[in-house]
Amino acid sequence: MSDIPESVACLVDAAGVDAVLSFLEAFGGTRLYVSKRADNSRLTQMYGDDLARAICQNFGPGYWDVPMHKAWRVLCYRNAGLPVTEMATRTGLSVRQVYATLARMRENGVRVFAPRAGRRVDERQISLF
Question: InterPro entries given for it (predicted)?
């Protein structure tokens, strides 16, 4: 993904987008103490060695104000096919703010995938149309 915020690009390189999104959902907007080494830390237990090691190397030792990166998270969720209501819940935005964020991204030339079909097809049911 080309629009990764600079402050978390090192984390995405180390652990992948899914792990970083999960981490930002849990700790975004908080001040986190980052130790010098990730050995047996809470981060290692929760998110694995790769992410914990990358956080310690890039932001420790000391306190780190974890960014929220709501717009980037909305873009990732949209491109993964999540519904807008779930995007709003995960980012702490309203549904209206999610739509406005997506519109702003499109205006700025960011590629945003179209939403996937919202209805699940029941294979047991005959299609009427």
Answer: Homeodomain-like_sf (IPR009057)
Dihedral over alpha carbons 49, 60, 3, 82 (to 10 degrees): 50
CA dist., res. 58 & res. 55, Å (int): 5
Name the helix (H) or strand (E) containing 25. helix 17-27
- In eight-state DSSP terms, residue 113 is P
Domain count, the chain: 2
3-state class of 32 per DSSP? strand
Q: Is the peptide bond before 83 cis (omega within 30 degrees of 0)?
A: no
Judge if 55 and 10 occupy the same domain: yes
pLDDT in tens, 58-104: 999 999 999 999 999 999 999 998 999 999 999 999 999 999 999 99
Q: At what angle do helices 17-27 and 49-59 cross, to 10 degrees?
A: 70
Distance CA 45, CA 78 (A): 28
pTM of the model: 0.83
Name the DSSP letter for residue 28: T
**pLDDT for 10-52, tens place per residue?**
999 999 999 999 999 999 999 999 998 888 888 898 888 999 9
